[in-house]
Amino acid sequence: MKRIWIWALLAVACAHVHAQDDKIRQERAQAWTQARAIVADLDKIVAPHGVQESYKTRIGGIDQWLTVRGQERDNPMILFVHGGPAAPVTPTLWQFERPLEEYFTIANWDQRGAGKTYGETDPAQVADTIRIDRYVDDAIEVAEHLRQRYGKKKLILMGHSWGTIVSMKAALKRPDLFYAYVGIGQVISVRENERISFDYALEQAKQHKNEEALRDLQSIAPYPGNQPITRERIIVARKWPQYYGGLSAYRSESAYYFDGPRLSPEYDAQQVKDIDQGNLLTLGRILPEFVQVDFSNVKSFPIPVVMFLGRHDYTTPTAPTEAWLKQVKAPSKQAVWFERSAHMVPWEEPGKTLVSLLTYVRPLAK
Predict the structure, then answer these.
(1) What is the 3-state secondary structure (H, E, C) of the chain?
(2) Which end of the chain has less Cβ packing within 10 Å, N or C?
């Protein structure tokens, strides 16, 4: 009888602890909900002729999400093609985009396998479609959809990181859809980028006598060398350049970006988790094609091109882009340097991003 009484007391105690845990979880969830509501209220577009729409539409045989925002729907429209693969801009656009929306209508597209689009289709159905050409055709289809829905003659095409591969190929295939191309964190030659990035990390590790970094980097040296660039090798190779400010200048981490989706009014908790799931779905499948990307032999570009170059970018190093821009023939071309940025230019220098778009890009949308 005494033993039963003791277990009863333990059961009551455990129930009390669980109740306390549930209360803490509920309070935290409520705090996050309230924080997202504040961001949503700040970001609300109330201008009479503005546009604020988030919707899914059929692109490339599956439902894909678009988020379209602007204070004046008659402004030029930007199609922003995000990086990754599977790293959507939508959940962090609240960090930098609002001032841009006074001068442009901006469409952010969650690509197949990415962000909100990830949850719309069984990943097993999408897996076999994870190919660069499929993304390119999707981008073209998105551009055509946006032109029709919003009554635009052409769009400004802007790509970031992985998205520059998709965007450049789309511009080369269908230049009639676009006024101009803006590359941010531009990829020209993946293998050359990887080599420069690795060499930078190795130099920094030696200067700082970082034995852990040296062991990691030496374990994959020479990199990329003549060996395949596998998922395992590329993860090691990217870790240390980013630690030494090659992702966000002067920072060893980028929590503002990676944790930013938790405050997004556009994403619920499951969609935030889906960002990582999308990365797992796409990276391994796209990697064999990705590492072969090389635009070095593209000698002419059919539309005006503007490159935003982060001075400290060692995620997609700028040297190959600078060299390519000097030799390419295009209706017009412009390099814009961001001295306090690495790879995350719009997040790191949002003011200069706006000024540069107004100076070099908006005049092209005629």
Answers:
(1) CHHHHHHHHHHHHHHHHHHHHHHHHHHHHHHHHHHHHHHHHHHCCCCCCCEEEEEEEEECCEEEEEEEEECCCCCCEEEEECECCCECCHHHHHHCCHHHHHCCEEEEEECCCCHHHHCCCCHHHHHCCCCHHHHHHHHHHHHHHHHHHHCCCCEEEEEECHHHHHHHHHHHHCHHHEEEEEEECCCCEHHHHHHHHHHHHHHHHHHCCCHHHHHHHHCCCCCCCCCCCCHHHHHHHHHHHHHHHHCCCCCCCCHHHHCHHHHCCCCCHHHHHHHHHHHHHHHHHHHHHHCCCECCCCCECCCCEEEEEECCCCCCCCHHHHHHHHHCECCCEEEEEECCCCCCHHHHCHHHHHHHHHHHHHHHCC
(2) N
Report cis status (omega within 30 of 0) of the bond before 222.
yes
Distance from C-alpha of 63 to C-alpha of 120, rounded to nearest angstrom: 6
Residue by residue, pLDDT tens for the chain (366 residues) are 444 455 555 555 555 555 667 777 787 888 889 999 999 999 999 999 999 999 999 999 999 999 999 999 999 999 999 999 999 999 999 999 999 999 999 999 999 999 999 999 999 999 999 999 999 999 999 999 999 999 999 999 999 999 999 999 999 999 999 999 999 999 999 999 999 999 999 999 999 999 999 999 999 999 998 888 888 898 899 999 999 999 999 999 999 999 999 999 999 999 999 999 999 999 989 999 999 999 999 999 999 999 999 999 999 999 999 999 999 999 999 999 999 999 999 999 999 999 999 999 999 998
Whole-number Å distance between alpha carbons of 140 and 121? 20
Instruction: Output the six-digit token pair for 289.
Output: 């094609």
C-alpha triplet 115, 295, 216: angle, nearest 5°: 65
Q: Which residues contact 62 (CB under 8 A, 6 or more apart)?
A: 112, 117, 120, 121, 125, 126
Whole-model pTM above 0.85? yes
Task: Give the separation between CA 357 and CA 80, rounded to whole angstroms.
Answer: 13
